[in-house]
Amino acid sequence: MTTKPSKELEPIANPYPERDYEIFIEAPEFTTVCPKTGQPDFGVITFRYRPGPYIIELKSLKLYLWSYREEGHFHEEVTNLIADDFIRFAKPKFLEVIGKYSVRGGIATTVRVEYTEGQN
User: Fold this and answer.
1) Domains in the chain, ordered, with CATH?
2) How far apart are CA 84 and CA 97, in angstroms?
3) Which of 20, 34, 84, 85 is catalytic?
4) Residue 41 is among the residues annotated as catalytic for this protein
5) What is the Cα–Cα distance from 108 to 52, expressed in whole angstroms?
6) Distance separating alpha carbons of residues 116 and 50, to the nearest angstrom
7) What is the pTM of this model?
8) Measured between alpha carbons, how far is 12 from 92 in angstroms, rounded to an integer?
């Protein structure tokens, strides 16, 4: 069976919806492509979230992040796209997504997106 990248995240019912707890996920092998040069950009994507009705199944998250490997995005854009999709699929009470991108041309970038339930 071949596994392919996907833009779908698989929400799973939160096993403890009555409890307020946090989940930390780190994806240290994230890659995307610079939209200006076509060169690969490497980064670490970190998620910290308090689940609402759903948690995200981790294999679907891996395939989702993989889907950015051949796409050209600025660091600010891709970090916000990831946060938007995570919010749409998981409906968290709170979410923080941090994209920490490796040095390129002498500059490293870190982008932090934060969301709280009820926020647009």
Assistant:
1) 11-116 (3.30.1130.10)
2) 10
3) 34
4) yes
5) 33
6) 9
7) 0.94
8) 12
